[in-house]
């Protein structure tokens, strides 16, 4: 329970009938003995008569009863919408074909335009872009296993081979045949160095750096790249690539040095949008997942932003370590939270 001050963001949420501020999902009015959601359309109470609660259990334990108008003890309309869209996402993930907007909207019981707006507001991308992202995942998983490329392209939802062969190289970073053969005849430049953050491995295709990973065991880092491209030809005899590796090592040792490498980035349109914001975060600074979502114009897509950060395979150059929780907590990090903290502390020192 928290006493209220006039400048508090929670009070602003009540006045504007906005979603609740963190830690204050419900407010209670002492003079009426009723608790409400901040979005409740009932008369605005006086500030000194308000108490805030994180849960309905806390409010009722303090002797308050639920408002009959906004019904705070039931699922909110927003929660119901989120569950509806979560179910639609599962349907998209399980479908072997690209479902149309009209089909998805009919499943949701909404008009196509309304469904598209609600889906994008909650997920952060359109249903079509979400479906394309799921198709890309299925493509990467199935292509090495299926007996033929033709089987794969139809199995993952492509309607024509022309569309598949146009999109696939951008998704896979190479031709489908090369990817299916474990990057056979594909040259992957690879180098591993020891740094103050542990071992760092750098991998690159002819398009640019495709992976920068951190770890404590160099053999495990190398094995992971080999598992991804089992038939590739690995080498480190290219002077340009050696310069890229030197830039990565230098950026770890001296974070004030800018790192500007050509990147072979493989991700959905939404992920690449998030990663572009991450690359613009200044040295020594951090953004919350919410702030990143705001910057890409999708304030409701906080979870999708977190997923995009977790999907990043290019450490340091795409600084997902500079994204933290709304309360400043380090949250997760692909290469370990302790390493994330070490990177941030190092950057603050140099900044």
From TrEMBL:
Catalytic activity of the protein: a 6-O-methyl-2'-deoxyguanosine in DNA + L-cysteinyl-[protein] = S-methyl-L-cysteinyl-[protein] + a 2'-deoxyguanosine in DNA; a 4-O-methyl-thymidine in DNA + L-cysteinyl-[protein] = a thymidine in DNA + S-methyl-L-cysteinyl-[protein]
UniProt keywords (A-Z) are: Activator, DNA damage, DNA repair, DNA-binding, Metal-binding, Methyltransferase, Transcription, Transcription regulation, Transferase, Zinc
From the UniProt record, which GO molecular function terms apply? DNA-binding transcription factor activity; methylated-DNA-[protein]-cysteine S-methyltransferase activity; sequence-specific DNA binding; zinc ion binding
Per the UniProt record, which EC number(s) apply here?
2.1.1.-
The cofactor note reads: Binds 1 zinc ion per subunit.
| Pfam families, A to Z | Ada_Zn_binding (PF02805), DNA_binding_1 (PF01035), HTH_18 (PF12833)
Q: Name one GO biological process term.
A: DNA repair
Q: What class of enzyme is it?
A: transferase
Protein name (record): Bifunctional DNA-binding transcriptional regulator/O6-methylguanine-DNA methyltransferase Ada
**Protein species of origin:** Pseudanabaena catenata USMAC16
